[in-house]
Amino acid sequence: MNIVNLYYFFDVVDTCSISKSARNLYISPQGLSQAIIAMEKEYGITLFNRSKSGLKLSPQGVQFAENARLLLQAYESFLEKTRVLSDRPLQHDSMLVYTTALVSEVFRDTFSKFFEEYSVTQFQMFEQQPLEAIDAVRLNASAGIESIGVIGVPDFFLPKLECYSDVCFTFVLETSLMACVNTESPLAKKKIFSKKDLVSLPTACNNEPLLEESIFYMLKDFGKPKIIQRSSPTMVWQFVLAQDSICYNVDIAKHVIPGSIALIPIKDSLKSKIALVSTTQANLETTRMLAFLSKHMEAAFPNHVIK
Predict the structure, then answer these.
(1) Which of 56, 85, 114 is the endpoint of a domain?
(2) What percent of the chain has pLDDT over 90?
(3) Residue 110's closest CA among 303, 13, 250, 252?
(4) Whole-prediction pTM value?
């Protein structure tokens, strides 16, 4: 049993749509569909009746939902009661870090200093969508597992964070979205792109839902961007290098961009925030860790520090 899949299940119950729930949860529709199918196979039942009008709970699904809701209530109660029993000091032999796309690469040196400073001998980094990363930190905290988040969040997305009363967000840096072009392309001669310029250009993406949503949001007043999906970051770069097309990255990523790619500013570009994520129950040592990360991130990108 995967507890997280049960939370996914209830979101689909609410929306009656895999695609809508995938957007809510910031996971791929394929991944969400696979999670639902996995539960149906595991329990040998059909959870939803599928039709052109959407997904509706089957009779078996209705009973499953009732039982699953009771299970989640008991599970959350168990985590809360177990958490208050623990008086163990924070151990630093392992660390879970949840990041969003680009963050782990952009802050590679900062993370290296962090793990060296705190003598973390084992660590795991997971790249997720912002809400997934936040929920992972919350769930780990409830189970007494040490973890933090370092996430990039576009400004239009910030209201979604207001519902987390048990989470602390420390906003450290502000970034801007920029266009990436081949240095040999005529597009590289541009000093700055207008949003109107960008709508007509083929745009390569690596199946990154939040980036795609950001692009659509930024260009919504000028038309629908031409998104071309590629299977990996390497394929994105290859696509940009092969023809007059673009992809997007943030301005603080200049040091990890291939030398054959130029970053071109965008007029009135979309802004994003880099935030550190912890729970309100974080102890003093975790708070010190976050302060260390914040200090070194600010030192690395002094022109992007949020005052």
Answers:
(1) 85
(2) 44
(3) 252
(4) 0.68
